[in-house]
Amino acid sequence: MSAEETHGSAEVAARIERRWATIAVIIIVMMALLAAFAGIHRATMPQPRVETTDPSRLHLSGEFVESNLGSVLEANGNVTVRAIGQQYSFTPACILVPADTPITLRATSADVVHGILIQGTNVNTMLVPGYISEQLMRFAKTGDYLMPCQEFCSFGHEGMWGKVKVIDKTEFAGRAKGGGRLSCVGQ
Amino acid sequence: MLANKKLILAHFWLAFAVFGVALTLGAWQMFIRSPIGTWLSNPELYYRSLTAHGTVMGYVFPTLVAMAFGYAISESALEQRLVGVRWAWAGFWLIVAGSIMAVIPIALGRASVLYTFYPPLIGNVFYYLGVVLVVVGSWIWVALMSINLRVWRKAHPGAPVPLAMFANVAGSYLWAWTAVGAALELLLQIIPVAAGLKATIDAGLARVFFSWTLHAIVYFWLMPTYIAYYTIVPRAIGGRVYSDTMARISFILFLVVAMPIGMHHTFADPQVGAGFKFIHSAFTALVALPTLLTVFTICASVEIAARLRGGRGLFGWIRALPWDNPMMLALAFSFVMLGFGGAGGLINMSYQLDASIHNTQWITGHFHLIFGGAIVIMYFAIAYDLWPHLTGRELIDLRLIRTQLWLWFVGMIVTTFPWHWVGILGMPRRMAYFDFSDPAIAPQALSVTLSAVGGFMLLTSGVLFLVILARGMRAPQADAGPYRFALAVHQPATVPVALNTYALWVGLMIALTLTNYGYPILTLALNEGTSVPAVYVGAQ
After folding, report:
1. Is B279 an interface residue toward A (CB < 8 Å)?
2. Which N-terminal residues, if any, form the signal peptide (chain A) (predicted)?
3. Which residues of chain A have pLDDT under 70?
């Protein structure tokens, strides 16, 4: 092979390589743009604000005292659910929500790191002690969902399963009439 | 030139011995949590096993492989006796001491916090100190790689650093810096609490520190595999590296962009705001670039080998490849697993999709496929390739080697594909058992059983691997000649300074870490009142 031929083949090799590198860069830029578009257009962003709370005082005062846990129908028709995770259960252990309603889940941990995962949905958040997790959700259909803890929280982790019960909107409104915090514990 | 064979063999043997133990634990875990296992009366045993499995597979095994391979590369690629052999042995014994120190509290059930630590859960202080010793031992290796390269540069001013060594040192720098995150978490946060000096800890900050280590560590595990792709495979199958320049660019990209992306592990966390999550998501997309470049270059290099062997046609050359060569087989399996695992990784990197599989068995399946599959199968190939040079004896039974590789590949697919599936169904990770009598969980029983079968295939393959290496120590003597690395089609006579040195890239790596991690860490550290009481594991 002459020196000129070697040079020529090196050029060809470099050209093909550049072409592939360009395609690779385009793929990656497209992916990042798609994620940005989906995030903004479909409003599927993670929780925007960092909120803190003191886990050793949860039971004494503030948003996560026992009497305030559960589901509440707000004046605008939306529902807010407040829950805590602790070794090895959720309170409330069964969350009651209406179908077809915008729901805000606010939750935190009373001890170690836990996680809330509602099976069959994309509701999935960590519960880190000291911080409040907030997730927006909406259930299209009524039914029962399992809600396991998805983060290792010591030896009882495998037994930490909660439930979500989605009921008809009007039925929920009826139950919510008396005020107070709703749940499906014991039902 | 491999002068310090004993040093390299000691690292490899320790790596593969602990790998064998951790693999056995893994198979037991798969069995006990599947419907074919008996009901585990004490789930606490499961978490001891899980902590040991993760600690060994995450910190000890790949680190030792990288070190052994690194010493071998330094001596054979630079053709220079290793400088600092005593220090290298000191590093080795530190890892031995650290591993023993860590494993005792694990075995006693005093450190069942998993290898990811999870404060405010706090285990016995000696577990963490043991992990620190392992990391310190590996940092000696990082320093030695840098020193050996410097000695070589003095003797060869301006010469291109051989590709294998260039990549090896890039990998060592990546490890040195990525380990800093977990080191800060351990030294500043966890160890003071574990030692009883403090009683509270900021769990959110700890998770951010750990994410600094948790992602780039995967690229440290990946480095030996990529070095093998570029510098062993083409030589072993009779080809050439398509492009030396592109190889260098890929390794540099890993060094720079593997680091500032770790917060994609905290997409579902409440302590990090949405802005930094988006930045890390975009950077995670970027890290696919060096892999896409590598896939192209390696496929092209393999095609060169096939055409040199008389392969013809657009795809007809694939048949001309030396498929009975274990290295060819390992590469093909590795690429298939890298393809599936990488595709899964792209799903994990976008937080919209991540929300449906975060912390489910999908994730377990993902990293077993990438690390246990694509990466570890090349560790096997590296060992097979180096063994005759280290022992001075031939590995005769190629058929057994091929069987071992096939079994590992099929076993890994059978294990991880059902895992991905149950993950999509929402099955959470790290559960000692599942109540398969619950009608909502019962449909997952078949998938979990399949995974367990895959686990035992992997165990069989791992045992075969150890048998092959042990038999190789007693085979008839044969001179394997000097250990060589693949040459490029156009072997470079000179290389631009930027592709021959690291200063610019290490600077960029540190700068990007500071921009992507500095603000979140600072705000969390300054945030008063987020430290929470420690919860001691195994406290009586």
Report:
1. no
2. none
3. 1-7, 42-43
